[in-house]
Amino acid sequence: MSPERLGGGWLWRLIMAVLLRVSLGHAAPPSPTDGTDCRARGPASYILVFTGLWSPQTFPKQYPMFRPPAQWSKLIAVTHNSRFQLWREGAAAGGGVQSFAELGLTVEVVKEAKEARKRRAVGAMYRTAGIPNGISHSSTELLMQPRTPLLSLMVKVIPSPDWFVGVDSFSLCEGGQWKQEVTLDLQPFDAGTDSGFTFSSPNYPTVPVENVTRITSQMPHHPANSFFYPRLKELPPIATVKAIRQDRSSARQVPMSNHILPNSIRPQRFSETPLDCEVALWSSWGLCLGSCSRGGVRHRSRYILLRPANAGTPCPELEEQAECTHHNCLRRQ
Predict the structure, then answer these.
(1) Which of 86, 90, 236, 329 could form a disulfide with 152 if both were Cys (CB 3.0 to 4.6 A apart)?
(2) In this structure, are residues 196 and 160 in contact, taking their beta carbons and an 8 Å threshold?
(3) How many helices (H) and strands (E) does the chain have?
(4) Which residues contact 270 (CB under 8 A, 6 or more apart)?
(5) Backbone torsions φ then ψ of 113, nearest 5 degrees
(6) Burial letters 48-75, b for 16+ CB under 10 A, else e
(7) How much is the pTM?
(8) Cα(121)–Cα(171) distance, rounded to whole angstroms?
């Protein structure tokens, strides 16, 4: 074979190899190194609105009225990719989550997010002001980027041992498009770092620390649990969060960052959760009053632990009497 033909064949094979590599690259593009599949062409702006639905009608059991009354902490939100985790159900809470869930402090969470941002795992962090009652709104503006399309957030339930509501790694990007509007119902979670059962429980650390768990109408299965409603299959939403995409070119857009919206929710819109009466155990029988042979009686009593609400089961009798027998009569000296 001549050198000229040999050189031409080599060049032809080289061209075919390059074309094959290019075609395979178009057929199966490499997945992003952060594990997040968002192919949106550019950023998207959202208004994030948190709405507290914690009312005495929907959650009447031990509803905090004062010192302090029912309220919400500041909201803390992080935009990120799959290489960052703010919190996760079934996983142990980190130091930042523990500090926020117990005390409402954000210093450690901010520090953790800043470190993750150096690794390009976090895009930005946002905060809103706290809400001084159980039923109101707060909002902030988010700027989502294709490389950090996930949203995680937390809001502490006040008062509580270590309870919070939140969103874990929710993607606002679907394929190549940003979602226009999303509303998520929120349920309470236990951070697993404090062992209290009620809203007003004192600080009693859980040792060792347990995983983050969802609080339900049945779990923890204990009458003292402030969210224990055995007649309900599931708890109603205690809060919601809504993300609304904004048109950045609109001249009528009103800045809303860290703005508390007017309270437009009326309590009568909430469904009423029935709360059954709870009473203590009977006391011991008292001594007999009167003569045993002439209809003497003895008494015992119990007291109300929890008064009924919203057409719940009424309280039973709190006092009971019985006839005396010879062995429980007082003998005259």
Answers:
(1) 86
(2) yes
(3) 3, 16
(4) 53, 55, 57, 58, 236
(5) -70, -35
(6) bbbbbbbbbbbbbbbbbeeeeebbbbbb
(7) 0.76
(8) 14
